[in-house]
Structure formats: structure tokens, C-alpha cells
Amino acid sequence: MRGAKPSSVLLLAIILSGCQLLPSGNRASDSRTLPPIPRGTSQTGAFTPSVTGQQCFAQLSATGANYSPLPNANDAPGCTRIDTVSLAGLQGDASRFAIANLGPVTCATASTFAGWARFGVDRAARVHLGSKLARIETMGSYACRNVAGSNKRSAHARAEAIDVSAFILEDGRRIAVKGDWNGGTPGERAFLRVVRDSACKRFGTVLSPEYDAAHADHLHLEVGDSSFCR
Question: Fewer CB in a 10 Å sphere around the end CB: N or C, the chain?
């Protein structure tokens, strides 16, 4: 190889080593040009979110949420889990709080829930009850079922709704929708109505004990294009 040009030697070495030349600006060492891989996924193709899902995962990560993306699934006609996550914890202004009994939710639902929990619940707890939020208790999220008394699929069947039953404060108090909506202290009743009203500004549909007896023990929070709050 005496007399070979340096560029030719380099090219031969690359070929023999099995490597490939990368165009300028797309070098493997330049990670800034590669999209982030959501937590809970791998680069082997085991989990493939949509473009919208990837964007949402980035937004959810920015909130400080603790979550894991889940595989997409079509369980039955009208029952889907697309770009869903398992949400374990959320970030408040000064502390983190847990989420109990929550199943799969779409990333969009989780992002809306994260904003509401921080700005509509944690702050309201400190203002009205003098304590930080420690945990939000739910009655679940995804369920392949219809709206009660109809043939229409519920938002729960698309993992786009969450039923919230109670709030645990750092000082140990448990503020439950059932019992405290009408029977709590003035501060507890005010707190529950503030968090309901705050949810109405973020979610498409919010149903509380003031809607019907079926919601006497929880707040139904549903994303979407509608605007119904009661």
C-alpha cells in the first residue's frame, strides 16, 4: 500500500472493519441529531410510539412525571390503548406525589392530569388546607365498556379518562369525594370544588357529585374536544 493516498487508506480500513461512513452532520457521536427514546422503550423495535406519541412523551417528561410507555393494543371494537403510559408519580412545586390504583392512560391524558395535579390540586391543598399533596387516589382509568345505559363506548375504553376518589395530604389527612364533598369541613368542601373547577379548565368533560348519583364518590376527568363541567 506504499504510495496510497491517506484518504484511500482510511477508506480501506473502514471497509475492512465493517464500518460505514456517515454523512457530515449525522455522525453517531452527534446525539443531538437523534430523537430521544422514551423511558421504558428500547431501540430494538419492541415499542414503537407514533410521532404524536413521541412528542407527547417528551412533554410529559418535561413535567417531571415518573412514567413508563406501554405497548399499543386493540382489545375489542372501540377499546384501544394507543400511546398509553403507566403513570407512577408526578412533580409538584416543591415535592413529588404518588398516584394510586391508576391503570393505562393515553399520554395526552397523563400530561393533562400532570398539569392539573400540580397547579390545580397541590396548590389548592396548600392554600385551603395548609398542607402539601402526598398522593392522589383513583378508581382506575382504562376499562373496555360503554357509557352506562347506552351503546356508546366510554372514554375509559380509549384510556382517555381517570376517576379520582380522594387526596392524601402530607399531614396525613384524607380528603375523599365521597363524604367530604358535602360532609367535610368548610375548607375541605372548598378544596374539592376548587380542584373540580380547575379540572374543568383542562379536561373536556368533568363529572362530580353534582352531576348524578353515579359520581357521588369520584371525579370523572376526561380529555377531548367537548366542554362539559358539572
Answer: N
For residues 63 and 136, what is the distance between their CA atoms, to the nearest angstrom?
17
State whether the Cα torsion 92-180-211-144 is positive or negative: positive
φ and ψ of 173, to 5 deg: -70, 145
Nearest Cα residue to 86 out of 57, 54, 46:
57
Q: How far apart are CA 37 and CA 49, in angstroms?
A: 10
Across the chain, what does the average pLDDT equal?
83
pLDDT score at 101: 96
C-alpha cell at 161: 379518562
Q: What is the dihedral of CA 120, 121, 122, 127, to 10 degrees?
A: 80
| Three cell numbers written together for 24 | 457530515
Distance CA 40, CA 133 (A): 27
How many Å apart are CA 137 and CA 102, to the nearest integer? 8
Question: Residue 126 class from Cβ within 10 Å (0-12 exposed, 13-18 middle, 19+ buried)?
Answer: middle
Question: 11-46: buried (b, 16+ CB within 10 Å) or exposed (e) per residue?
Answer: eeeeeeeeeeeeeeeeeeeeeeeeeeebeebeeeee
DSSP, collapsed to helix, strand or coil, labels residue 154 as: coil
Residue 100, SS3? strand
